[in-house]
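Purpose: get a first structural picture of the assembly so the mutagenesis plan has something to point at.
Setup: two entries, given in the order below. No constraints added.
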Amino acid sequence: MRLSRYFLPVLKENPAEAQIASHRLMLRAGMIKQEAAGIYAWLPLGFKVLRRLEQIVHEEQQRAGHIPLLMPTLQSADLWRESGRYDAYGPEMLRFKDRHDREMLYGPTNEEMITDIFRAHVSSYKELPLTLYHIQWKFRDEVRPRFGVMRGREFLMKDGYNFDLTREDALHAYNRHMVSYLRTYERMGLTAIPMRADSGPIGGENTHEFLVLANTGESEVFYDAAVAELKLGDRQVDYDNREEVADICKEFTSVYARTDETHDEALFDQIPEERRRVGRGIEVGQIFYFGTKYSAAMGATVTAPDGTKVPVEMGSHGIGVSRLVGALIEANHDDKGIIWPEGVTPFHVGIVNLKQGDAATDTACEAIYGALRAAGFDPLYDDRDERAGAKFATMDLIGLPWRITVGPRGLAKNLVELTSRRTGESEEMTAEAAIARIAEIYAGV
RNA sequence: CGGAGCGUAGCGCAGCCUGGUAGCGCACCUGCUUCGGGAGCAGGGGGUCGGAGGUUCGAAUCCUCUCGCUCCGACCA
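Result (structure tokens, whole complex):
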């Protein structure tokens, strides 16, 4: 993309309403625009990141064998009366009537609807196990939205639902989700720690929240420093292998890590003192096992091998996709702007033309831009007629992890500059070498 | 929902107390100069002062109502 033809409305000054770094930077980098309290338009740069996160979530869900579908944002109140949650949910649920006076709601989650879909089409244990998920906009009418997309009223969420015959099968689904989530967050360049949690209005006995450590997080967290060092890395996981999946879960959950809701001071005190950590975390996902809570209430049964009808065992699992954009920035920024991890960056590399209009510099930039695109990369070429300082400031603000700087001074020696946004370190090399380095960097992403 | 604030140009703000032709910085447009870390000079455009009532000769300013937004608290992916 050529910046001169893109839509990137960056702000030089800080918007008054933004209190935390991610909110401020998303507004300044032209990623979002607020349209109402807790409701945002996603401008091109923000939309790109959002789409990228969605893509990673889709890939990892499908790798784990889960099946995508798409349910509507609007739901009928009747479904929610069946589960008893229409009255239980409270004013957080946005309710309204259509022209025929039918009671509707903007879905805050989809347990009822997925159960309705399941019971309409599945009647035998032979069709299990089944895990369906979608990535869809939700609405929760928070009393007090704040922190930009981190706590909006409208938000994009991946929510998935497993259907199994037995408790053991459902617990395997639970474990499978935990592992797939670990991989999802790692690919995004995040350390998200699974912590034993409270089940809240979803209900259920088994639940973990995934928290990204950040001092602007909403939850107080207590953990053993060792848990933050755990990595899934590039190990290959067979998601159908119960033992393997369970072992990984054990590895990640046997080290102490809890939110204030489930914190146990006595257990915490058993951790060697030098490893005890108290901090804050941003919740970016949660998994639940809740058995037959919805299936029993809504009549989602299958015929078991012995001929009896049994309610299916279920769980649900969510990833706050839009909130992750904010969490990523909270975890990756400095005083100049955002620093995107390679896995989620909106553009792979920025090209800064230091002397727009200079024939040799323009030609060199065009060549690099063309070569990168031909190699399958998505570069952002700053071809605006701006001064170097302005171009650098924009690149730093929007946080592309790599920058190729091209100017007459370097070109005289046939060199360009490759700069890391994270370390600030620059290295002079030929344009070909810079392109090769970019290819190398992204080969593992 | 309790408490506290704020709505004046695209953004950040002053003006309001003490009523009298609406200002500043950034951004934007034109020209010249400049050109490796958010340039300088000169000129220019843009605002029914959130909305509705009221008081007054006269309201951004005073009064009433209303809408929106933000912050602290309780609540939450």
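DSSP finds 14 helices and 23 strands in chain A.
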